[in-house]
Design goal:
Number of strands of chain B: 10
Largest sheet of chain B: 7 strands, mixed
Strand content of chain A: 25-35%
Number of domains of chain B: 1
Distance between the termini of chain A: 64 Å
Helix content of chain B: 10-25%
Mean pLDDT of chain A: 91
Structural class of chain A: alpha+beta
Shape of chain A: elongated
Shape of chain B: globular
Strand content of chain B: 35-45%
Number of helices of chain A: 23
Largest sheet of chain A: 7 strands, mixed
Helix content of chain A: 25-40%
Radius of gyration of chain B: 16 Å
Oligomer: heterodimer
Distance between the termini of chain B: 40 Å
Number of strands of chain A: 32
Strand order of the largest sheet of chain A: 6-9-3-2-15-19-17
Mean pLDDT of chain B: 84
Order of helices and strands of chain B: EEEHHEEEEEEE
């Protein structure tokens, strides 16, 4: 039915003013009530303030890897620089290995497993053979050798200073320690040793292996929230000089640049490294055959590998006689970065084919969206750790099967995890966010860039995340957390901090801001916070500041709530202008009346003999009067009415113009842009992209006007599936049957398999 | 009560820590069939099936489809269901089952997907009739494995 619109000079503004705000919650209210007040350290635009400061810690470490007892023995001299405006009387250090101390909070806070089938590692923790991998900390001494008082609080250690450490001053102290390395088969984690029973050798991936300075900053003071196993690390930048002593037949991969190649590498290895520096594809430094031969070795002594790393927030290494090693120099803006992979023969053929390529691909893509990779080395190591990142080095787990074949899941799993973990060099290794508090701020941003790197690896790369439709199931689930939840408390870390954040950023890029504005703002955030420590508010504020867009509604909905997207198109009404001109309106009214359906009773009554047919004298004026005849008085009234309008206003009285009122409901709660694909009766289509602010006065239901000379045939909400709409069955007007996932799968299954058919044909010929 | 020890390691870094499945059941009025799509974590179902098929890989072994369908149908108490197929993603696997039911959609459902193996397994079920949701999702877990269905 077409409704007639009566025009009047005052109507429009009056009607708008009379609209009620029906929603109880304003989803566009600003975030000032939640975000911290800007100050001299962090500005309202999201940039570091003019008084921004951060601490610094330089490390000089000697460490020995005991391959017989799987033990780390270390001694460090730490120079702590107090760049804060505060005077400090004590320092806090992180003792992460203490999560494997027998009475750690990690164990104590573990909740009951399934009593019917008790996992063996869990059972071990309650029995006598529980693994004790906690730190054994020796005396802590100042530069003069005087012992300092220390207090260990589970995974944190306080060192009391001999006197106040004033702003701008430094303090030097030494510390000794040792700990037992975890056997990853029994106790897995971000670090560990893997034993290969067939050849009797160990492979070590060593991380969180030394007492690391806790962060002291303008937001939290000391960040000494206990490490329970999920919330990763919050660290200070510094320069590292590390001497790693290992069996002399081991190959060591490490954060930093090797300082003594002549002492630890063979002449052939040094020559191959030089070749690799300018090679166009990876060059083997230690071949698989050489690594396999090494497996039969027994060490004849020890070697000390010396590495230096500048301006890093952490340091990790790997060591084994099983390592094959390939390398390729990658030039970026005139600087050569050595991309290198280390893996046992069990990693091939996957690793020699994909790992180093994936490293270089990551550097190319990530640098384009953030900043130029600032370090001289990027390393990927295969070992017992599934996927974990450290400055310049990361540990990645996927391997082929024993018969050297591998599935597509394993192949793409490896490429993706290398991209992801190498990508962590950008977030949080350089953009140094607080992982203990906010996992999403590096995992989510990194997963987002991982997706951008994957789509440039090959067409139709099987990314596990990225497309908005893939997050729908998580967001529909009950009991999940807002993204702004502390790292240790999140139930589904992958769905939340990684996947939902990544999808939110994709939607922000593709649908809300557009690629150009998003990419500029995202790069600005990365650039502003290089080698600094941002907080969530700094990210939110920078993205708004640099894109020139108020995104408070977006952060509020996607990051602070668990609402979902479900926009339903419920009703579409058609209006045309009532010109008041009887010469135009009456024929239209006549046509409408004739188009009205004839009732069943009227149809049955039609053939009945009527009295006026038998008595024509009963017929008078009203029997002959044409209801839609234009009367002179009506013409005169119109002439009077039309005089109130100016000539240019009268031109607007176009009776052929259609005004469609599109009724939209927000069933999911999240306010989002509305994307409408309108199909007209002439077969043409038009797309309307309406900003989320359409919901600002009423976030439950709105009506959108579409003015067009054409007749609308159908409307689809979110036609490109770009908003993570949870229920697409209500996205169509008129409603149409949406093929279910089941039907689509079944139909695909029933289709002819061309490969099978062609192969059968070949076989029969 | 006797404790049964099982082999296993702590969750690896990056592994999901949330054990969950989602089942969508659609009653097709015209065909009088129950169309079932179950989405599972690939690692979970793979680990389950490797108890009897040690080297099984979902996306490589031909027998995987029958094993996954068979396990899922049994766990849902849909013994007579036809296996339409499985779709293996990077992290998840979708299981497609179909079952003709002359008397109409079932009034009660059992859902024991992985509840005996994973203490925190949660199984959600959503019902549809001819493609339209009939109500809120229904949650099953190790202590609630049978529930009435409203179509």
């Amino acid at each position: 039915m077409i409704r007639r619109l009566l025009l009047g000079a005052l109507f429009v503004s009056l009607h708008l003013a009379a609209q009620n705000k029906k929603s109880p919650i304003d989803k566009f209210r600003q975030l000032e009530e939640i975000l911290p007040t800007p100050n001299d350290y962090r500005t309202a635009s999201g940039a570091p303030g003019h008084k921004y400061w951060q601490q610094r810690a330089d490390y000089d470490i000697d460490v020995e890897l005991d391959d017989v007892n799987q033990t780390i023995i270390g001694r460090a001299t730490i120079t702590y620089h107090n760049n804060s405006p505060d005077t400090l009387t004590y320092l806090w250090l992180q003792l992460d290995q203490n999560i494997w101390e027998p009475h750690s909070d990690t164990g104590l806070t573990e909740t009951a497993p399934d009593w019917k089938k008790f996992p063996l590692p869990t059972f071990r923790r309650f029995m006598d053979d529980r693994f004790d991998g906690g730190y054994q900390i020796g005396p802590v001494k100042d530069a003069a050798g005087t012992e300092l008082h220390k207090h260990i609080n589970r995974t944190m250690m306080r060192v009391d200073l001999p006197g106040p450490l004033a702003a701008g001053k430094s303090f030097v102290f030494t510390i000794n320690w040792d700990y037992k390395i975890n056997n990853s088969k029994r106790v897995s984690g971000r670090t560990g040793a893997e034993f290969f029973p067939k050849d009797g050798n160990w492979l070590y991936e060593i991380a969180q292996w030394f007492p690391r300075m806790a962060a002291y900053n303008d937001v939290n003071g000391w960040q000494h929230k206990q490490f329970l196993g999920t919330g990763e690390f919050t660290l200070e930048f510094g320069n590292y000089k590390v001497r790693i002593t290992a069996p002399n037949d081991h190959v060591v991969a490490s954060t930093g640049v090797l300082q003594n190649p002549d002492a630890v590498l063979t002449a052939a290895q040094r020559q191959r490294l030089a070749t690799a520096r300018t090679a166009k594809k990876p060059v083997m430094i230690v071949t698989e055959a050489e690594a396999t031969a090494n497996e039969k070795n027994k060490p004849t002594g020890k070697k000390t590998w010396v590495f230096h790393a500048d301006n890093v927030r952490d340091f990790a290494f790997a060591s084994s006689r099983k390592f094959a090693w390939d390398a390729q120099g990658h030039v970026m803006n005139g600087k050569t970065i050595m991309a290198m992979s280390y893996y046992p023969k069990e990693g091939n053929p996957l690793w020699e084919r994909y790992s180093t390529h994936a490293i270089i691909h990551t550097l190319n893509i990530y640098s384009r969206y953030t900043f130029e990779y600032p370090y001289p080395v990027a390393i990927s190591v295969n070992g017992p750790v599934g996927g974990m990142e450290y400055p310049m080095i990361c540990f990645n787990g996927p391997r082929p099967k024993d018969d050297k074949t591998y599935s597509a899941r394993t192949k793409y799993g490896l490429i993706s995890v290398v991209i992801h973990e190498v990508g962590h060099n950008y977030f949080p290794m350089v953009v140094n966010n607080d992982e203990r508090q906010w996992t999403w701020l590096d995992e989510g941003l990194n997963s987002f860039l991982q997706y951008l790197a994957e789509v440039e690896w090959e067409d139709n790369y099987p990314s596990r995340r990225g497309e908005p439709s893939k997050i729908v199931e998580y967001m529909k689930g009950e009991g999940h957390d807002p993204i702004m939840t502390n790292s240790e408390s999140i139930v589904d870390l992958g769905g939340n901090a990684y996947h939902k954040t990544e999808t939110a950023l994709n939607i922000l890029r593709e649908t809300v801001l557009g690629r150009e504005r998003f990419d500029f703002a995202f790069k600005e955030y990365a650039r502003r916070w290089m080698f600094k420590r941002p907080m969530p508010a700094d990210f939110f504020r920078t993205m708004e500041d640099a894109s020139g867009t108020d995104l408070d509604w977006f952060w509020r909905g996607w990051f602070y709530t668990t609402e979902l997207v479900d926009i339903s198109i419920d009703e579409v009404k058609q209006y045309q202008v009532d010109t008041q001109n009887p010469d135009i309106e009456k024929p239209i009214s006549k046509k409408e009346k004739e188009a009205e359906p004839v009732t069943l009773a009227a149809q049955r009554n039609k053939p009945l003999r009527k009295r006026v047919e038998d008595y024509p004298e009963l017929i008078d004026f009203y029997n002959k009067y044409e209801e839609f005849t234009v009367l002179p008085s009506e013409k005169k009234a119109f002439e009077g009415w039309v005089k109130q309008f100016e000539e240019d206003e009268r031109k607007l009285f176009d009776p052929s113009m259609n005004f469609y009122s599109v009724g939209l409901k927000n069933l999911g709660g999240l306010v989002m842009p509305v994307i409408l694909e309108v199909e007209f009766s002439d077969g043409t289509r038009e797309e309307l992209r309406i900003a989320a602010e359409i919901w600002r006065r009423n976030n439950l239901a709105v009506e959108k006007i579409i003015a067009t000379r054409k007749e609308i045939k159908s409307i689809v909400v979110d036609p490109h599936l770009e908003t993570a709409d949870a229920d697409t069955t209500n996205n169509y007007w008129p409603r149409r049957a949406v093929k279910s996932k089941f039907t689509i799968f079944k139909e695909d299954r029933d289709k002819v398999n061309p490969m099978r058919e062609l192969r059968s044909k070949d076989a029969s010929n | 009560m006797r404790l049964l020890l099982v082999l296993g390691v702590c969750a690896a870094v990056g592994a999901h820590t949330f054990h969950y499945s989602r089942t969508e059941m659609n009653w097709n009025t015209a065909a009088r069939t129950l169309e079932v799509v179950v989405t599972l974590h690939a690692d979970d179902i793979e680990a389950q099936l490797r108890k009897t098929h040690r080297q099984l890989e979902l996306d490589r072994d031909k027998e995987a489809e029958g094993l996954v369908c068979g396990y899922t149908a049994r766990a849902l108490g849909l013994g007579g269901a036809r296996c339409i197929g499985i779709k293996v993603g990077k992290d998840s696997v979708e299981v497609y089952l179909e079952m003709g039911v002359a008397g109409g959609p079932p009034a009660r459902l059992t859902n024991r997907i992985l509840v005996e193996e994973l203490a925190d397994q949660r199984n959600d079920v959503e019902l549809k009739k001819d493609g339209r949701y009939t109500g809120p999702r229904i949650q099953f877990n190790s202590s609630e494995t049978k529930k009435d269905l409203r179509w």
